[in-house]
């Protein structure tokens, strides 16, 4: 019987919880994992999640600058000299680039997950595809869904995203699953608001902050469910790359 557990914030992660055969899926709906999904959909070569702006600048100093794009925020505002991580703002900017992404929560959660057997990156935009691909890798391991949270606090949008993922997993698998209490609660919460994703995001504390910054359209964009066929995963404990469904991917340049 497969086991699914939800961690309510990235601070619950530690190497002990990741030991053994554990598959991890990371969520930061507002906005890192939505940004990663969108950047890869728009044709980025890779996304490199970093812990902070200083690490991002160090990578650029050591590499061929033209092929890299600095993207990042801290506490919701763009880092000076970086592109905004709001997904819609990346359209037309990331094609054929290695995106170095620094965010307050999501990129830290991804970096802290790399000691597991395999790490996927999911958002509302692509959860169904990630669930489908995870099942191809699944060999009766424990699945840990990591909600990044917000600066040490639980947030509702990642919890909703984890519930959406569990629901998508159930739709595609006839296996018996054992849910922890947190996984059960996430799934039930999603089902209770299955058609209200925009409302959930707008009502969250991070959503309220982003709306004060004028990012209403970004919230609407990332509240869409299962519109992208991109499946991001961590490679070599450093890069996030995409499993691509070319037939359905269509135009990825983001220039239209």
UniProtKB/TrEMBL annotation:
<dbReference type="Pfam" id="PF04029">
    <property type="entry name" value="2-ph_phosp"/>
</dbReference>
<dbReference type="InterPro" id="IPR036702">
    <property type="entry name" value="ComB-like_sf"/>
</dbReference>
<comment type="similarity">
    <text>Belongs to the ComB family.</text>
</comment>
<keyword id="KW-0460">Magnesium</keyword>
<dbReference type="InterPro" id="IPR005238">
    <property type="entry name" value="ComB-like"/>
</dbReference>
<protein>
    <recommendedName>
        <fullName>Probable 2-phosphosulfolactate phosphatase</fullName>
        <ecNumber>3.1.3.71</ecNumber>
    </recommendedName>
</protein>
<keyword id="KW-0378">Hydrolase</keyword>
């Amino acid at each position: 019987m497969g086991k699914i557990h939800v961690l309510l914030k990235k601070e619950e992660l530690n190497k002990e919880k990741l030991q053994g055969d554990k598959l991890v899926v990371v969520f930061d709906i507002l906005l890192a994992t939505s940004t990663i999904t969108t950047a890869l959909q728009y044709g980025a070569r890779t996304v490199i999640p970093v812990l902070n702006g200083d690490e991002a600048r160090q990578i650029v100093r050591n590499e061929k600058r033209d092929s890299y794009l600095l993207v990042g925020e801290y506490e919701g505002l763009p880092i000076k000299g970086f592109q905004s991580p709001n997904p819609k703002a990346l359209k037309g900017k990331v094609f054929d680039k290695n995106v170095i992404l620094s965010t307050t929560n999501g990129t830290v959660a991804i970096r802290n997950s790399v000691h597991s057997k395999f790490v996927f990156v999911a958002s509302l935009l692509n959860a169904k595809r990630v669930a489908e691909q995870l099942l191809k890798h699944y060999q009766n391991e424990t699945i840990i869904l990591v909600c990044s949270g917000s600066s040490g606090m639980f947030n509702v949008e990642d919890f909703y995203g984890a519930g959406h993922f569990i629901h998508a997993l159930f739709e595609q698998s006839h296996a018996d699953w054992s849910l922890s209490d947190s996984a059960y609660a996430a799934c039930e919460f999603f089902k209770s608001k299955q058609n209200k994703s925009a409302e959930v995001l707008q009502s969250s504390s991070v959503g309220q902050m982003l709306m004060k910054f004028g990012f209403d359209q970004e919230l609407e964009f990332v509240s869409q469910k299962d519109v992208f066929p991109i499946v991001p995963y961590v490679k070599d404990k450093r890069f996030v790359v995409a499993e691509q469904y070319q037939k359905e991917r269509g135009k990825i340049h983001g220039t239209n």
